Amino acid sequence: DVFSTMIRLYAKHLDFLKQQVREMDRKIAEIMETLDTPITTITGIGLTLGAYILSEIGDISRFSSAAKLAAYAGIDPTMRQSGEYNGVRNRMSKRGSPYLRHAIWLAASSAVLHDPALKLYFQKKRDEGKPYMASVGHACRKMVSIIYAVMRDNKAYTPCIPNEISV
């Protein structure tokens, strides 16, 4: 009898939480509609993730290039140098905003499955022998460039498959 009461209370609590999530989603949709931003046209970025990314970036004019936005997100590679030695096994720096990095990682993980250009780029990195996570990291860097261009130009994203993908 005690367990059935506890289960009923947990079910009511879950229903309450689901209702709160629906209310927050509705509020996020209202805010995103007033912002009128094309960030949600990017494959892998919906309303919630778009709001998350916009709140972390703020005004895009703070960044003069996509590389600086990538550094702010911590998606830039580390540098290993000493004298004339240049390391070749560099990792993602992770020195920037962990929240923005996580949001971009989620967007890129989805986009490599559904966006034709990022899917092709991801597959190119896999064919080069890169591990799965490293290839997603490369896709994250591409995603930062896409986000920067869309926000800077205030134009909708249209995926295009180039003849030759550059690094």
Helix content: 55-70%
Number of strands: 2
Fraction in beta strands: under 5%
Largest sheet: 2 strands, antiparallel
First-last Cα distance:
63 Å
Q: How confident overall, as mean pLDDT?
A: 91
Rg over CA atoms: 20 Å
Count of DSSP-assigned helices:
6
Tally of structural domains: 2
What class, by secondary structure content? mainly alpha
Order of helices and strands: HHHEEHHH
Question: What strand line-up does the widest sheet have?
Answer: 1-2
Shape: globular
Low-confidence stretches: none
What can be said about this structure in brief?
This protein is mainly alpha-helical and 167 residues long. The protein contains 6 helices and 2 strands. It has a two-stranded antiparallel sheet with strand order 1-2.
Write the layout of secondary structure elements.
Blueprint: H1 2-35, H2 47-57, H3 66-73, E1 81-82, E2 85-86, H4 98-114, H5 116-127, H6 132-153
Antiparallel strand pairs: 1-2
How would you describe this protein?
62% of the residues lie in helices and 2% in strands. With 167 residues, the chain is mainly alpha-helical. It folds into two domains: 1-36; 37-153, no CATH class. A two-stranded antiparallel sheet has the order 1-2. The relative contact order is 0.14. The mean pLDDT is 91.
